[in-house]
């Protein structure tokens, strides 16, 4: 672990500035400020600390994936979220032999597997992945579906947590229900049909004292319940779409993938390990893989490697910026 607290604090501050740059003009800077005041310090740093605090070889739940056009088909996913989640899973696997279980709709899991594999992870059934997590012989992940039924969600949540005993629950770009119980898009469209009720699983984890970390960029995601007044005030349709589910740590970012990548950069800085850094080359590879599996750019309504309406090259450049910021802390430069 890097022991110079001044260097880590300076890196955290720079990473926070990068993720909160509201290039899309959606009010994220206001959300970031509200989350920062609530946290009392660096958001990216707090998230990295929480992830690195889990025991070596432990199980971590991770959720992402948006059934982006649910009223048309439950198989249409969005390209913000999966790449960032894959970066976090990869870093945890390399740094701490963590077994991450990615939870999403059954309809989205085949595409998720492709993204995870492109990130260098071997996707295995849970019990086989546990073997690799114990001996460190593979960077692994496993996947599980969760129910889309309101009636079954709470009982399924209890059973899943009893069975797998996660040390932490991480969510990125995962829509949560609003105060009226509806799952809203950023355009205030009800798109809860065919959607796994994972926010209820997240809340059950919180009730059990399991640490939680969430990343979001719009106000309708799991975790944003921590800053509801800011979402209502600064986000278009915010009073309608604001998610009610909170999180111990919330990273409000201009793009959820950026939030994940910055958290991974902070993890790399703390470990002094360049292997953990999410490189520009990996960012390009994962976003192009998203095209192969049909993930959509939900702002422009097309399948391409642009995320949230921002060009692919912007995301690649952002990854390079993150790598440059953390390089002074790396013992194994990337």
UniProtKB/TrEMBL annotation:
Domain of life: Bacteria
Domain D-glutamate cyclase-like C-terminal: 15-322
Pfam family, one: GLUCM-like_C
InterPro entries hit by this protein: GLUCM_C (IPR025504)
Gene3D superfamilies linked: TON_0340 (3.90.1640.20)
Alphabetized PANTHER family for the sequence: D-GLUTAMATE CYCLASE, MITOCHONDRIAL
Name of this protein: Uncharacterized protein DUF4392
